[in-house]
Here is the input.
Amino acid sequence: MPKALKRFLLPAVILALGLAGLYVITLVYAMGESLLAAVMLATLACFVWIYTTQKAYVYRYLFPGIGAALIFVVFPMLYTVRIGFTNYSSKNLLNFKRATQYLLEETYRADGSTFNSEVVPDGGKWRIRLEDADSGAAFLTGAVALEPTEQTVTLQAAPTSTPVPDGAMSLRDLIERQDALKNLVVVMPSGTHVRMTGLHEFAPQRLQYTRNPDGSLTNNQDQSVLRPNFKTGFYETADGEQVQPGFQVDIGWQNYTQIFTDASLREPFGRIFLWTVVFSALSVLFCTSLGMVLAVLLSWDSLRFKGLYRLLLFLPYAIPSFISILVFKGLFNQNTGEINLVLHGLFGLSPTWFSDPFLARTMLLIVNTWLGFPYMMVVCMGLIKAIPNDLYEASAVAGAGPITNFFRITMPLVIRPLTPLLIASFAFNFNNLVLVNLLTGGLPDFLNTSVPAGTTDLLATYTYRIAFQDSGQKFGLAAAISTVVFLMVAAIALIQIRATRISQDDKG
Amino acid sequence: MAIVIDKSQRWRIFAAHAFLIVLCAIVIFPLLMVVSISLRPGNFAAGSLIPKSISLDHWRFALGLPVTGPDGRVTQPDLPVLLWLWNSVKVATLSATVAVLLSTTAAYAFARLKFARKKAALTGLMLMQMFPTVLALVAIHSIFSRIGHAFPAIGVNSHWSLVLAYSGGIALHIWIIKGFYESIPPEIEEAATVDGATPWQAFWRVLLPMALPILMVVFLLAFIGAVNEYPVASILLHSQDRLTMAVGAKQFLYAQHYLWGDFAAAAILSGLPVSVVFILAQRWMISGLTSGANKG
Here is the structure.
């Protein structure tokens, strides 16, 4: 490549990308997504600055990766906190501008005669033939292409005396082109506007609401006035009746006061929190003890077939967890599951794994131990390898047995460097959504709760259910709960960092 | 080895073997069961571990082939297993590529270049990793539905939205690659710089070719991570033909529509390759990291 070309190529590309970016951002802003546009503008500005300034050379390497991490990891977390202070939900889904837009597009059927309609061909285009249902007077509009479009198309109608020609549009085609037909406005010779109201019917239609200069909406049908209420996020009539759709507004700490004071929410929250802690702690305990015992056994020199055992015992870690969890869901099935078949055959038992809270929790712990012990096993094996052999030689001289060795030498030396991993594992299980969501779905549910809450729900799955399953997609409430969990995770992270520092100090 | 050998040694070895064999049996029982179930006729049939009669209907279902029922009716499978697998592979390949591209340059800056607050940035990355995505699902859903208003192609229910959502989770990858770069002596690049190479050329022409093994490992880790990812995929994908295997698989086990046998076949079909790759990558990763250290 010639040097001159090379010198100008990079700035030219950046300039082109920058201009294209600005154009797209303008489009996004015009669509009313100002937050998205702002984020994009900030990203673009960073991009242009970093790739044109020599001083920012280092950031050319960092920008793509760190940028992605900031936009798709850090920003969503901050945005979660933000949503926690709003009433965002399936009832208050749209922003104010879009909700207003929606209401302004509502129509109602006005007084006046209706017309029977036929869509008749004319060359490659179509005309609408309208016949007054009462007087029988016929009208024909100008030709129209009936291409799918978002905009309203206005047509002028004129009186006609010709009967309906052959080849009028069939019902099937009418249904297919309904969207285009619905966007037609036909102006009758008398000056009234009619629109499509049925597949074979046009009638006068008027917009339901007119916007007043002060932001209120007047109902054209009964002259009542709607005012937006920015406390509740709805347009309301004079006597406080709410009109759908609502819009998003800030509601301050309301979600939080609801979590901590509303009894029907506070009680399940407390119980779920308790179970989350118990579940995480027991999971760590079971996985670690089993993993450590296995690691000790598999580090034993006199034992044969260690490689084979290791490979087999490692399998649960290698299999995608969504598959093994669903396999267990089938195996634990009350009636057809293989586990109950075995239990029934051996002991005559058939436990109701999915409908009894205690058994459901036990099942979660069994499955989670099955999934989690191989990791602890592998980690412990690495740590045991690092223990100097002379310690065991010395204890052998002193006549100590394997049990003493384990509790006096192996465990104390392994547990110190293991602590940060144990805390990390606790934090992981604290938010183990995949296991609970796929195995029990949080069921069986508590009774008497305003929002469905399950006896096996963790805080993470509880929020997931509030936001994305039953109960009307209460995103705001879910985000508030997530924020509370964020604080808990932050506390765990702090403890973990301290533990890491301590175990590193030990080494160094 | 100076472990004292006494008479109880043989008994202990025997006990250890017994314990390990029982445990291996517990680990393997579900896996063998799944194989057996996938070969049994019918979705509710109970039976022993070794099926009495073998039927390939479940495998035909998983592969999308028409199945002839006991009454002679031919039915088309109603769950597109192969399509879901393809979606998983597609999303995972794209996001693993993005992850490698983004993390390899960032890791270079952290390993070789000097800049202000490098340590703080590294700690920040580590901290970020501690907060699970699960807690930000509401925001992620809201962000992508907003993006979708402006650009439907990367909004909710698109595969690109998943690739973008996964592209931020590269902290661990940066750490791994950074560790590898640091094991390569900087003198090699310095020699190139003396010969007139820019930092970019030193990175692109000298360091990167040496780092290929670790990039493969990171690619595989990111690939497996994306195939196995469930929470984000479950909120971003809706329509049946867009789902990844991780989201689609649970549809086999709805109480009203219980396809236990078909699930078993689909589970083996999708789980086996991933598990094999994982076991291989695990070994390779350790050897890849140590071979890097040996070079230094």
